[in-house]
Amino acid sequence: MTKVTIPDLYAKKQRGEKIFGVVAWDTHMAAIADRVGVDIVSVGDTVGKNLWGHETMFEITMDEMVIVTKAVRRGVKNALVSADFPYGPLQEGTDAAVRAAIRLVKEAGIDLLKLDGAADYPETVTALTRAGIPVWAQFGLTPQTALASGIPYENQAGKTDATSGMQDRLIAEAKALEAAGAVLLDFTNSGPVIGPKVVAAVDIPVIGGFGGGPWLDGRVRLAQAAVGYNVAALDKQPSGYANVAQVIHDALSECADDVRSGLQIKGQPGR
Q1: How confident is the model over 118-162, as pLDDT tens digits?
Q2: Is 64 exposed, middle or buried (CB count within 10 Å of its CB: 0-12, 13-18, 19+)?
Q3: Separation of alpha carbons 216 and 225, rounded Å
Q4: What is the overall mean pLDDT for the chain?
Q5: For the chain, which domains are there?
Q6: What is the pLDDT of residue 210?
Q7: 63-69 long-range contacts, CB within 8 A, separation 24+
Q8: DSSP-derived secondary structure letter, 24
Q9: How far is 250 from 79, CA to CA, in rounded Å?
Q10: Which residues are CB-contacts of 143 (< 8 A; sequence separation ≥ 6)?
Q11: Residue ranges of the alpha helices (H) in the chain?
Q12: Where do the H-state alpha helices sit in 83-210?
């Protein structure tokens, strides 16, 4: 395997090859994804809610994003590493956003910076590009735009195909973000009607996570969701590709039985 570059992603779009990324929050998950050969390992700001037990995704801090991104960076050799801003630096203004981005580059070694709700901040996209920081611009119905709309993010899948006026606006936003300097777009909650139109409207790759589909240039999937890692998978069969939570549960139960039976633990001397 060789190091993935941004021009590699452009070449994939031109050849019609799909780009694949995963969201990871720890060294080992990132290293496994890197061995699979993913193009991007994305450190999402949803780590607080989906891994650390926060009530909302807006509680995560910049210090925490630096820590988790450094952990992911240690596990990745070939894929591009992207990190999200937590809620705050982008909204505080261009200068604050550039300072925060430089911190993620210097302290955590990111290759890309993903901006949620970037369509509202094209001037910041341009400023970050001038600072030499590649921008992955997320637009559409996103977690941070959901906060403003009051509509639960999980209920927004496919809503961007609702009206022609919304479709025209999203195409214009995609073009504006490309013109502002974004190297990649994350079209969240795209649908099968507007998705292909946005892909055709810009030269940069358009990929999507939640609410996306095969009509885009690629997909991003939460690693934990793909493998059924969350505790909820113990109560309901996950819809992904595995049930790792059940495997962990059964392994720890077996370990507990050995301890309670006075046996040595597997992997320890004498067993």
Answers
A1: 999 999 999 999 999 999 999 987 655 544 445 444 444 455 555
A2: middle
A3: 20
A4: 91
A5: 6-227 (3.20.20.60)
A6: 78
A7: 65/104, 65/108, 66/103, 66/104, 66/107, 66/108, 68/25, 68/26, 68/43, 69/43, 69/104, 69/108, 69/109, 69/110
A8: -
A9: 32
A10: 45, 46, 57, 116, 153
A11: 6-15, 27-36, 47-50, 62-75, 89-92, 94-108, 122-130, 143-149, 164-180, 194-201, 223-227, 244-260
A12: 89-92, 94-108, 122-130, 143-149, 164-180, 194-201
Residues with Cβ < 8 Å from 142, sequence gap 6 or more? 116, 117, 153, 188, 189
Burial of 43 (0-12, 13-18, 19+ CB in 10 A): buried
Q: Quote the CA–CA distance of 103 and 131 in Å, as a whole number.
A: 12
The continuous run of DSSP H or E covering 5 comes out as: none
**170 alpha-carbon distance from chain centroid:** 20
Given a cut of 80, is residue 71 above it in pLDDT?
yes
**Max intra-chain CA distance, the chain:** 70
d(CA 154, CA 203): 29
Are 125 and 115 within 8 A, CB to CB? yes
> Token pair for residue 119?
């369509």
Residue 67 CA to residue 88 CA, distance in Å, equals 17
Chain-centroid distance of CA 135 in Å reads 13
CB 19 within 8 A of CB 12: yes
The model's pTM is 0.90
Distances (CA, A) of 74 to 48, 63, 66: 20, 17, 12
* Angstrom distance (rounded) from CA 207 to CA 253: 40
